């Protein structure tokens, strides 16, 4: 597979303004006004959503708002959060035609636009959650759109450290993300106390890392999360953001009255990590990593 990195992590929210307040106004990131001017964003007719693109290092946070409660996106939001939820993971391809062909041959089910019977080879490609252990997979084409490393923000958040996925079976996750999607097994990020007892696997997708954890206790926080959201086999649990100054990150979050869950911890290699869950965004969980 020719996947260069995670191009973006997609969120589904009921109101774009609150997502902007948390990810931009508090954390120093900025909307890419050239692609998705605030407040309306860019309209995507595929599922009738409006989107804000927020560069984050060399990746993006993509904020989606459904315009139709009866659309797939509208039903997803109603089912999994009502206010906000993680929605999809989108790797960036260097040869999307080849990637789509290989993914389809590997058994992943491509989602075609309404009224079509075959993909035209243009634009992004989507693969159904039922063939991706419950997570919607999008593949971004090599269209010249690479978010510059100079990052559009004030530097408090320097990028995405990793994307955290909770699943039921590490073997299934490995088969999907390594054997079928084409990631490379790597050491998982160091364990944090709030994870509880887990089995872990790191998978590198181009320049990006996805952390897979399988909780060993159904009553732990991750076990409860999996029971609520992992009916398809896995679900995105958190996005971990890199920061050069965790203390300043925490002060910014405090301005929004968002307190860390538990204590700041030190993990392998001297990294300091804090966990946040903005109450106003329900099931969105954020980790902050100072490495």
Question: How would you characterize this protein structure?
Answer:
By secondary structure, the chain is of the alpha+beta class. It folds into 2 domains: about 5-140, 2,3-Dihydroxybiphenyl 1,2-Dioxygenase, domain 1 (Roll); about 160-290, Roll (2,3-Dihydroxybiphenyl 1,2-Dioxygenase, domain 1), CATH 3.10.180.10. The chain is built from 6 helices and 16 strands. An 8-stranded mixed sheet has the order 2-3-4-1-5-8-7-6. Strands 10-11-12-9-13-16-15-14 form an 8-stranded mixed sheet. Strand 2 and strand 3 form a beta hairpin. It is globular and about 50 Å long.
Task: Provide tags for this entry.
2,3-Dihydroxybiphenyl 1,2-Dioxygenase, domain 1; about 20% helix; 2 domains; eight-stranded mixed β-sheet; about 290 residues
Order of strands in the sheet with most strands? 2-3-4-1-5-8-7-6
Give the helix tally. Answer: 6
* Rg over CA atoms: 18 Å
Question: Which outline best applies?
Answer: globular
How would a textbook summarize the main sheet?
Answer: 8 strands, mixed
Coarse structural class? alpha+beta
CATH superfamily of the largest domain: 2,3-Dihydroxybiphenyl 1,2-Dioxygenase, domain 1
Give the ordered list of helices and strands: EHEEEHEHEEEEHEEEHEHEEE
Average pLDDT value? 92
Determine and state the CATH class of the largest domain: Alpha Beta
- Which architecture name of the largest domain does CATH use? Roll
Per DSSP, what share of the residues sits in E-state strands of 2 or more residues?
25-35%
Domain tally: 2
| Low-pLDDT sequence parts | none
Percent of residues in helical segments?
10-25%
Distance between the termini: 29 Å
- CATH topology label of the largest domain: 2,3-Dihydroxybiphenyl 1,2-Dioxygenase, domain 1
Query: Total strand count, please?
Result: 16
């Amino acid at each position: 597979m020719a996947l260069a990195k995670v191009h973006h992590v997609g969120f589904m929210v009921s109101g774009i303004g609150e997502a902007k307040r948390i990810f931009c106004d508090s954390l120093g990131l900025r909307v890419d006004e050239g692609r998705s001017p605030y407040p309306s964003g860019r309209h995507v007719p595929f599922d009738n959503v409006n989107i804000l693109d927020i560069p984050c290092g060399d990746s993006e946070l993509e904020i989606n708002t459904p315009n139709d409660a009866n659309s797939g996106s509208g039903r997803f939001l109603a089912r999994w959060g009502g206010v906000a939820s993680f929605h999809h993971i989108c790797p960036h391809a260097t040869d999307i035609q080849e990637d789509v062909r290989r993914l389809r041959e590997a058994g992943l089910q491509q989602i075609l636009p309404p009224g079509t019977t075959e993909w035209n080879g243009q634009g992004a490609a989507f693969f159904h959650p039922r063939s991706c252990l419950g997570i919607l997979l999008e593949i971004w084409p090599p269209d010249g759109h690479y978010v510059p490393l100079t990052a559009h923000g004030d530097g408090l958040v320097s990028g995405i450290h990793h994307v955290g996925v909770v699943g039921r079976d590490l073997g299934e996750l490995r088969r999907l993300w390594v054997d079928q999607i084409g990631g490379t097994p790597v050491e998982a990020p160091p364990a944090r106390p709030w994870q509880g007892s887990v089995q872990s696997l790191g998978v590198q997708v181009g320049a990006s890392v996805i952390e897979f954890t399988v909780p060993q206790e159904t009553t732990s926080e991750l076990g409860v999360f999996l029971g609520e959201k992992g009916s398809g086999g896995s679900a995105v649990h958190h996005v971990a953001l890199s920061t050069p100054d965790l203390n300043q990150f925490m002060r910014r979050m405090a301005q929004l009255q968002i307190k860390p869950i538990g204590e700041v911890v030190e993990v392998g290699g001297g990294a300091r990590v804090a966990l946040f869950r903005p109450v106003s965004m329900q099931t969105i969980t954020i980790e902050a990593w100072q490495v």
